[in-house]
Amino acid sequence: MMKALFLAPVLMLIGAAPAAQDVPEATPAGEAVDCISAHRINHTRVESDRVIDFHMMGGKVYRNELRMRCPGLNANRTIMYELHTTQLCSLDTITVIHQPGLMRGATCGLGKFQPVTLAGN
Asked: Which residues form the signal peptide (predicted)?
């Protein structure tokens, strides 16, 4: 689930929940947005090397399709992002963290946050 390390600027470490090989189907549930409230993120689920679902408090899910494939990003990795405000935005990046040792891997750019309804929900 979610692990966080708070520093100035704030760094967030998020362990991804196990993901299936295939990206679950999702139906758009509104217009894509540039930013989401970082404080409302309940957990993330890495779906592939390009797709991350951000599950928010209250049950809303935002799917983020990264601008490019992110080497080393998979369900067995932790991701980190750096916050300069209270929001996580499409201009921000995530970094893959390799454990043990918390060694940094690839840093990859986020895309827009698309609110979705996941298949089966």
From this structure: 1-19
Q: Which residues contact 97 (CB under 8 A, 6 or more apart)?
A: 13, 77, 78, 79, 80, 103, 104, 105
Q: Three-state DSSP class for 98?
A: strand
Contact 55, 44 (CB under 8 A): yes
For residue 49, what are the domain limits?
2-118
The rounded distance, in Å, linking the Cα atoms of 95 and 83 is: 12
DSSP annotation of 119 reads T
What is the arithmetic mean of pLDDT over 63-76? Answer: 90
**Which is nearest to 44 in space by CA: 102, 96, 7?**
96
Number of domains in the chain: 1
Phi, psi of 32 (to 5 degrees): -65, 150
pLDDT at 30: 97
What's the first-to-final CA gap in the chain, in angstroms? 20
| Amino acid identity for residue 33 in this structure | V
Q: How confident is the model at residue 99 (pLDDT cuts 50, 70, 90)?
A: confident
Determine the length of the chain: 121
